[in-house]
Amino acid sequence: MNIFRLAGDMSHLFSILLLLLKIHTIKSCAGVSLKTQELYALVFATRYLDIFTGYISLYNTLMKMFFLWSSFTIVWYMRYHNVVRRSYDKDQDTFRHYFLILPCFILALLVHEKFTFLEVLWTFSLYLEAVAILPQLVLLQRTRNVDNLTGHYVFFLGAYRSFYILNWIYRYFTEQNYYKWITWISGLVQTALYADFFYYYVKSWRNSERLQLPA
């Protein structure tokens, strides 16, 4: 564990807590993409299967359990909660997210470190996570006006991956034989997708304006 890994984990945790706060207390999921949340649920379900086969630390296990629980809880709220589901903008959230799943799975079958069941699913989760934010970003561009909680959620979700890149760089120079090129490339692609959002987020924060994304 290093400061960059911890900052990344805390940013990720905070982003999910912000989204849960919005959904549970305000009873609204306006501006939130169900397609992205379903992709994240699939990401965590395929990545954390090792929770049943190995133990690293209590911290690691609790974080995995939280992300599994929270991702499926959010999907449930948006699909089935009597009040929350009414605020879901289905007409705007039209990104065909299922088109992302098959290419990521095929790529995982072709490009991986070890050809085992868990390793292929872990690699698939990396590829899918890299593009899972796309439906959310498209939805925000369509609606343009972004409420504070949703904007903060996306920002800290992007910050999590940015801190993880710093974590990988740190580990590369401080640990022997630390070379995870699949993880690095997936993380760089994911961070690059946030670049435009980061620009407008910081701009709105500096000017004390409501966050608006270009159409």
TrEMBL record:
The keyword Amino-acid biosynthesis does not apply. Keywords: Endoplasmic reticulum, ER-Golgi transport, Membrane, Protein transport, Receptor, Signal, Transmembrane, Transmembrane helix, Transport. The chain crosses the membrane at residues 55-77, 98-115, 121-140, 152-170, 182-202. Residues 1-28 form the signal peptide. GO terms for molecular function: ER retention sequence binding. It is a multi-pass membrane protein. It is found in: Endoplasmic reticulum membrane. PROSITE patterns: ER_LUMEN_RECEPTOR_1, ER_LUMEN_RECEPTOR_2. GO terms for biological process: protein retention in ER lumen; protein transport; vesicle-mediated transport. It comes from the Eukaryota. GO terms for cellular component: endoplasmic reticulum membrane. It holds the Pfam family ER_lumen_recept. Belongs to the ERD2 family. This is ER lumen protein-retaining receptor. It comes from Adiantum capillus-veneris.
